Amino acid sequence: MxxxxxxxEQAIQRLPERRxxxxxxxxxxxxxxxxxxxxxxxxxxxxxxxxxxxxxxxxALLLVSAGTYAFQSSAVxxxxxxxxxxxxxxAVFYPVVGDSEERVAYHLWxxxxxxxxxxxxxxxxxxxxxxxxFIPAARAAESEEDELDRLLRETLGEAQKNMGEALQSxxxxxQPERLNVVKAQVQETLNKQKKVIQAxxxxxxxxKVQAVEVVSDESLKKxxxxxxxxxxxxxxxxxxxxxxxxxxxxxxxxxxxSAQIAEQELLLQQIVSEVEVAEVMRLEVEAAEAEVAALLxxxxxxxxxxxxxxxxxxxxxxxxxxxxxxxxxxxAELSLLERHDFSVGSERALLEAQGEIASGQVSTFEExxxxxxxxxxxxxxxxxxxxxxxxxxxEPCFRTVLNQCEERENQKKxxxxxxxxxxxxxxxxxxxxxxxxxxxxxxxxxQH
Amino acid sequence: MSTTIFPLQWTGFSxxxxxxxxxxxxxxxxxxxxxxxxxxxxxxxxxYYRSGRNRELAEDLASEVFLKALDxxxxxxxxxxxxxxxxxxxxxxxxxxxRKNKKTVDLEEVENLLESNxxxxxxxxxRLASEQVMELLDHLSDSERELVLMRYHQGLSHQExxxxxxxxxxxxRVMLHRALAKMKKYATHSLAAFLVFFLI
Lengths: 448, 200
Description:
The structure holds 2 protein chains of 2 kinds. Chain A is mainly alpha-helical. Chain A folds into 2 domains: about 95-280, Methane Monooxygenase Hydroxylase, Chain G, domain 1, CATH 1.20.58; about 305-375 and about 380-425 and about 435-445, no CATH class. Chain A has helices at about 5-15, 20-40, 45-70, 85-90, 100-125, 135-170, 175-205, 215-225, 255-305, 315-320, 330-340, 345-360, 365-370, 380-390, 395-415, 435-445; strands at about 130-135, 210-215, 235-240. A 3-stranded antiparallel beta sheet of chain A has the order 1-3-2. Chain B folds into 2 domains: about 15-115, RNA polymerase sigma factor, region 2, helix turn helix motif (Rna Polymerase Sigma Factor, Chain: A, Orthogonal Bundle); about 115-200, Arc Repressor Mutant, subunit A (Orthogonal Bundle). Helix content of chain B is about 75%, strand content about 0%. In chain B, helix 2 packs across helix 3, helix 3 crosses helix 8 (about 160-165) and helix 7 crosses helix 9. The interface of A and B includes residues 14, 16, 20, 28 and 29 of A.
């Protein structure tokens, strides 16, 4: 290499090295990074995990959208791919914690949805469907009829089942006001269903699928001559109402469903009447209870004013013999009943007390009131004490003093004028007069 | 180093394959970043001298060249010289750029930029020498100027030049020889003119 060339070479090499400014460097690096991330064909680590995370999200979105479509659309009917999704979504809405009213509403809603599906099934099958079958057209039509019949039966069966469950849930409602509201809803649904059934009756009465063979007769004959069974038939299938309803296995569908609806209406009326009767009885019981409570309250109030002398056996006896009892004696009766540990107002206490008196266990109401446990030894009367004190257990003297004392006491009592009642013991021949007030009271007690 | 930065098809890859490819993509981007740091000034310098010493234009061109390189990084093979590969991209990009913007390069602006800020700090002798060299280079054709700059300023070998310009190595030598001869001729002419002017 000559000198000039080497000089040129050195001169060029000495040209200053240009350096990228830091600003331009930062800008280029940022652009490179963005480009690396943004390129679709460049799955960097970040974009890979992002796309991986998107897979379940996309699946969830797909499921949600499919479920929403299936749930919202009445075009999804039994036999469709999305029908199980629809029923699952419906089951989610079952009111687990709801009351009977909500359950009735839920089952009514389901029943109405099934009826909507019936309409969709009939509409779908009514459209002319061009099909290619490998069986004769008549057989294909029969198969279509069977399929249609099965779909209708299952769908209507489920609707009726839901209606039945709604009625069962309705039985649990005891409040007449709420029951009337629910009854109106059920009745409305039943009316709607009746209309649907009536509208679909011509089809339901005789489900008939008409198959029109499109192929020409000649070609058909030729084809059948060669292969009678496996010849493909092109045909149009359509559901037509039969001109003359012929009894078929499917023809009872309309009658069946109508009868079920009638039964359900009857059951509805029955449930309502049962609840109404129960409500009337409940109101009567409440009224009787209120009346008894008022009566007893009144008795408690007068209890303090009752004189102890009047709480004698004759009062009880007079009660049991249906002799009119003055108001003042009711307090004594109450205390008697309480001592016998029976509920207030129980007639059983009265009868028991009467039995004790009749059997001679006690002679007075005071004795009856006295606790046997607390008074184990019989108390000595005033006259006995007096005679014992005076005569010191000398028999003749004792008797004389005792008689005198008793006469004196009797005279005192007769002068004070206590109310005397006859004691109607067992075997008393005179019938006691019937007291209507007491009878009424007794009737209330029995009801209670 | 994996040579495939971007797996072209997702389908047909198992989960493990995808994970491996994704990891390798990340690693490859890191490799590219290393290359970028290694060659960013060289490429910028080359573009600077080739674009008429326009700093802003050279920065824009450098950015586009590296973006293009990232996009085509999958085509880069390990046995290749990265320097040759990236210079080839820069060379082709410049050709495209000049083809598209032939009339838009403002020569006056280029002239005004001859003395950039970087030149101010340099000694006068060096600046004069640089100006003389650049003046001589201006007498060369584009391809010759590019060849001379690449060879003597950027320090690329004949083999790399042959690879970049897609020519035979001998051809490159001949071209370089001719370019230098041309420069010598113009330098002699300018010296003679100078002497004549000085003597008169």
